[in-house]
Amino acid sequence: MAIKKLDSIFKPKRIALIGVSNNPDSVGGITLRNLVGGGYNGVVYPVNPKREAVFGIPCYPDVKSLPKVPDLAVIMTAAKFVPQLVRECGEVGIHGIIIMSAGFKETGKEGKALEDQVKAEKAKFPDMRVIGPNCLGILVPGLSMNVSFANGMPEKGHVAFISQSGALCTSVLDWAYESRIGFSYFVSIGNSMDVNFGDLIDYFGQDPNTKSIVLYVESLAQARTFMSAARAFSREKPIIVYKSGRFPESAAAAASHTGAMASEDSIYDAIFHRAGLARVYDFGNIFDFTDLVGRKRIPKGNRLAIVTNAGGPGVMATDSLISWGGKLVNLSDETMQKLNDYLPPFWSHGNPVDVLGDATPERFARATEIVLEDKNVDAVLVLLTPQAMTSPTETAQAIADMASKTSKSIMAAWLGGSSMREGIQVFNRAGISNYPTPEQAIRAFMTLSHYAKNQEMLYETPKEVPVSFQYDRHLLREKYLKEIFPKAKILNEDDSKMLVNDYGIDTTHPTPAATEDEAVEIAQKKGYPVVLKIYSPDITHKSDVGGVALNIKDDEMVRATFRNMVKTAAEKKPDAKIEGVTVQRMVDTKDAVELIIGTKKDPGFGTVMLVGMGGTSAELFKDKRLEFPPLNERLARQMLESLQIYPLLEGYRGAPRKNIEKLVEALIRMSYLAADYPEIKELDINPLIVTSEDVIALDARIVVDEEVMKNPVKEYSHLILRPYPESLVQSANLKDDSPVLLRPIKPEDEPMWLELLASCSKESIYHRFRYDFYFDSHEVATQFCFIDYDREIAIVAEIEEEGRKKLIGVGRLIADPDVEVMEYAILITDKWQKKELGYIITKYCMEIAKIREIKQLVAETTRDNKPMISVFRKLNFKIRFNEDGTVTVRKDLTEK
């Protein structure tokens, strides 16, 4: 398996260094010295045909001459030799390679061609995994293994650091040595020709010694792999990301407002948000935040108290906290009484807790301890300034001694110079995060708070929004691909609105008019007032050329507007083909809110959705939120709630509340449309009018992806997330002919899932989970109902009983990161056992695994679960009875 084969890189017993030289300051010389002198217990083979020995260690001419096949080869030769060396490594059976050599795609066209050659050679050996080229190497402190040309070895720790920048790696290592921050793994991936961020998140996510992951990202080449891996592990292990290159100097011209507003960085932001990552925007905050998550205690919430010996720093910290959206804790009456009893009368009597300038170490520590005992407090920031009576080192030691007695997080900022250094070292040894300024401490704390909030929002249970379609979507798709999309690269307003309307989003229907007389006739039929818009396939932003006229009330105004509009548009866009105007009914927009909703297909990240402030000022104010389809009710609502204009939707200053429920439904419908049509490059509805009653699209424009029209793509390949697999919904009948619906689970099923488990006996629960499983909580339920359909499928059996839907069984398939082997588990409610439901669900899950090209199904149960063992036997699983009373079953799906 590809992920497990990373063991050859991160847990090698033998390492070959190819291209090592006698120069102690060369890449090879430093790497050899780091390995041999750093305590690595494995075997190191220097390889260089021009040397008999390097630093007194015997040297081999090539990898074929090595006494045993190494697990890992490190290539540090000139770039031109690398393709041949990769081939030689593959031929002798080396599975892990690190290419430190530079001179590949980072250097331009010729370098990219050379990198393609390396890829071609690597492709001949499916079991081979490659890190690099153009990388610093890796460090595994737990094995005392420094396979890099960076000096020194950081302490053992629980943070995995992955960076595309080698220079940044050396800076982080220097900081780590001084701050005594430890790492489980430290990886420079360079050009990430093969092993990428997603692979490493998968690998480190399964490592019990890694508690958090820090990423330095310059670009993502395999976004879907990244998203799948990050979503799988971000809930259990914080993943922190810094993205460089946020503001590219140039971007491809966009044909719609959506395209213009969905910049590259805003798409990255949407990726990190949807994956549940913590994003930092300041380079220094990488260090601050890594320090916080790398320590023993991580705050469980955002409720902060501040203890200080000076008012000014307390105010600074408070200002920073509020500016970041944080809030000071209101200390409980009990805490206030304890502080009043202990502190001098002139203390601040509130939060921040000012213990005064003459505070002794004991006063500092006791005040901090009292505050930490408050059940409303998640973390404490202790601030110290050097005053005449201050003892920085002794105070730090008192705080450190007290910290060993609490599970809550303590942060410190010892403000000053040389007199503070010993105290800071005390904190480092005690595992207490400390910062040069209050602002840095607050910034790190609030980043972690935002991360926790994002995680909570990501797994809020959505409401069920019944979305039905007037037409069969498959037949509708055939019609548009055959009749409408081939018409033009940019569809006219009428065709664009027609598709939007077919997906259940109300529109005004424009009717084309080539002459004044036609425009008058159409206006009379629709009824005044009407709206006229320029009709041209070459004009996207109509208002820019005077191509929109509202509230036209009579025939004469229609004629005058027609003449002026056509003339003005022709003057401003002389090359545009102008076919007249369109006429549509004027919608009453009094007290309405104008929004823009749309989709854009990014070449790297697939289709992204946008909602924001609409109208002609959309691009100016850029009040927007991006997300990736598919959407459910909760995600659609979060998009709206994040907008600055959301209060207008709620009903601002006495205005009526807008129909937010229908707007949420419109966003969900748009996500269906985005999923169904990879042929749409951009879709723009602007404005979308939202009133207290209606949600109406006044204008729409679709840009067709002509390349996809010529070369159709695989279903859903344009999406970074796999949508709900509707194709897996099917009906079945039980042994007594009772009808049952088999379908994939979805987040909205959480209440029914909890009800399902509550109706099972302890024996049934034990057979499924093999321990006394506590399921009755939202946190547990989300792990089973909020799933990534790429890696996991849960098929529920749904019935209707006494007019309400119920779940009576669930079979679950969970794939390994390489999606080759799936673990299977099943649970049937006691009332519905012995009706062949277990057989029906298991057989269907086998069929799904085969469709997904899974190689093997594995499952485990207990010896006394005879009905399920009988099902496995009936389906030709290989069954093994273990000595501990468990039963392991296995099915090879590649057998014919």
CATH class of one domain: Alpha Beta
Helix coverage percent:
25-40%
- Our estimate of the beta-strand percent is 15-25%
From the 3D structure, determine the CATH topology of one domain. Answer: Rossmann fold
Oligomer classification = single chain
Low-confidence stretches: 249-254
Spatial ordering of strands, largest sheet: 31-32-33-34-35-36-38-37
- Could you say which structural class the secondary elements and strand pairing correspond to? alpha/beta
Question: How many distinct beta strands?
Answer: 38
The CATH superfamily name of one domain is Succinyl-CoA synthetase domains
- Overall mean confidence score, pLDDT: 89
Shape: globular
Largest sheet: 8 strands, mixed
The CATH architecture of one domain would be: 3-Layer(aba) Sandwich
Note the gap between the termini: 22 Å
Number of helices: 30
Our Rg estimate from Cα atoms comes to: 32 Å
Question: What does this 3D model show about the protein?
Answer:
- It is a single chain.
- With 896 residues, the protein is an alpha/beta fold.
- Among the domains are: 4-292, Succinyl-CoA synthetase domains (Rossmann fold, 3-Layer(aba) Sandwich), CATH 3.40.50; 295-458, Rossmann fold, CATH 3.40.50.261; 726-892, 3-Layer(aba) Sandwich (Aminopeptidase).
- Helices cover 36% and strands 23% of the residues.
- It has 30 helices and 38 strands.
- The strands form 7 sheets. Strands 31-32-33-34-35-36-38-37 form an 8-stranded mixed sheet, sandwiched between helices. Strands 9-8-11-10-12-13-14 form a 7-stranded mixed sheet, sandwiched between helices.
- α15 links the parallel β19 and β20 (433-434).
- α13 (361-372) runs parallel beside α14 and α22 (633-641) crosses α24 (660-676).
- The radius of gyration is 32 Å and the shape is globular.
- 46% of the residues are buried.
- Mean pLDDT is 89; it is low at 249-254.
